[in-house]
Hints:
Layout: H1 18-35, E1 39-43, H2 49-54, E2 60-65, H3 68-77, E3 83-87, E4 100-106, H4 115-125, E5 126-137, H5 157-167, E6 173-182, H6 189-204, H7 211-214, E7 223-226, E8 235-242
Parallel strand pairs: 1-2, 1-4, 2-3, 4-5
Antiparallel strand pairs: 5-8, 6-7, 6-8
Helix pairs in contact: 4-5
Amino acid sequence: MSKLEFTGERFVPHKSPKKLESEHRSRYAFALEYIADRRVLDIGCGEGYGSYMMIGSAKSVVGVDIDEEAIEHAKEMYESTNLDYQVADVTKLPFADCEFDAAVCFEVIEHIENPEAVMSEAARVLKPDGAFIVSTPNGAVRTSSRPNPYHVKEFNIHELEQLVVAAFPTDKWTLSIFGQFQRYKNYTKAGVMFKNAYLTIKGALGIGPGDSDHSSTGGGLEFDFHTDKADLAEYLVAVVRGR
């Protein structure tokens, strides 16, 4: 079990809310089809669980994070001959141009003052035929009565598209934006509007998040990823591929 504690800033296996764990692990599982037999960079790997999830499919994986404690933990916790962890600033990656075949960046850009730099660096270290998968909470869909204090900015689907395309121009890359949907849950515009209004009122009244707000239950949930109605999902996942 991780020695790191869950503060709300990053996911920590076995110490974070169960629904949150299912959401995070599902994103890495979704990425597996894009990274098979490739040299992969995990940008903002945290305590390393996701990088380790990918080694069974990837040729090799390098996980990077600015938090030294998290990287030291990852090195102790997850070992494999095709896995490495390094302390690095995700806005200034210590790698050569075109060094990786694929990269993932899950739940990172909303924490960064300059997410444009993360996008630019990802584009720089990827090969022209590479793949990049980036996820972020959907800023248009509220999940709590109070803003996450660790988030600088949450992007709606149009803002995410603009951010990605600025670094990955459409003449060289294809872009698809998926929503991460809880299986068997009904998603409607009316439902999102009602939930947003309810949580806004709750926040205005000074009522803090309850269990339903911060997803303390719901372990083992299954998720589907599709582009239809992606703007209604709580999380957005952009997939970029070289033409």
